[in-house]
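## retry 2 of 3
previous attempt timed out at serialization; input unchanged, resubmitting
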Amino acid sequence: MRINRVKRIGMVVAAALALHSMSVLADELTDKAKGLLAAGKASEAYQLLEPAEAKRAGEVDYDFLLGISALEAGQNTRAVFALERVLAMDPNNARARAEIARAYLALGETKTAAQEFETVQRQGIPADVSMTVDRYIADARRLGDVNTTLVTGYVEGTIGYDSNLNAGPSKSSLAIPSLGNVPFVLGKDSKSNSDTFAAIGGGVNVRTPLGDGYVLLGGVSGASRGNFSEQQFDTQNADMNVGITKTVDKDVFTLMATAGVYYLDNDRYRNYTGLTGQWQRNLDARNQIGAFVQYSDLHYPTIDTQDADRWVAGMSYAHLYRDGVMAFASAYYVGERPQENHVDYLGFDGLGVRVGGRMNLDSQTTLFGGATYEYRDYNKQNPLFLSTRRDNQYGLLFGATRFFTKEWSVTPQLTWTVNDSNTAINNYHRELVSVTVRREF
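## retry succeeded, writing output
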């Protein structure tokens, strides 16, 4: 009898040890997955968790981690299944409901996504988080019924200061090599001019689904900018576009025709027409690559020698980090060919790069910034300066957008541009600070 009792005790101890061992293994699995997610390695976390799904489905902690990692890795359907199990066990889990709403939105089930986001709002979340959810709901409704035509638009007003309205040199005189390097005094409008300014603008965009993954796009926009003192540099512009997109799984193809007009001092200064082709591929929920090519026919009604064919082509990459931080980069070729044969020296070939990003400071405030560099090598010697022009242009942009409601926002920003050229008249620097109030509808 004592032997049997010892055996029973041994069996209980063994079972307890086995359960403890399984618990330790379970903790190791979920702890490692949490570490990978915190490090932004969602695909690795998903690959770690997925093989255990058959045994561990129904465990809230496991299912939640599996759902999050699947969503971040672009496995949206698997994310829905896992998060549905979490909500079946814990219906009041606001985080799981918000994440499943994101998954539905990624799958194109916009109506269900909006309903889930609305449920999250009713669970008593903080006011600042509620505003973020409001924007998700608005996005879901904008992307709503695939058979519905969507019309969006905006109006905005801006006030600011521009240190170089006409991108002119800061010097008052220049030596002209073709004239024996005799100093040439620049007129007031040829050198840099600074002033405060105010501007208004607006636009409307239309999106009409055609079926089978095709969407028709169109839009018009315009702006008018007036300077407080230097009114000879007042500008107006109007632009329009029409195009079509085709979505095939993770790929989006876009072909867009564009046209516009630009006025300087109330006189037509430049017209353009163009065509843009673009390809984007969503590698997963956080990574996107793309390629683009653009052609523009530039026409200057009063300066025919500046008429040109302009080409831009390049590649882009964007990555969304955790906590709403996004970074992007692109590299491109740019070139212009004069349409008049006797001004070849105005044509150039160039290369450029852009990098930038944005981050959510809080639920209502987004910080953004970027840097640009472009090198341009002109094709022929300039007959006035007796040299072949070469430019190195640098730019920086910093700003923030503060949303007061879903529709109203204010954006202060600062831009800085330097064009370093071997022809003195093209050397300039420019600083522009502005504040824009915008209403979207």
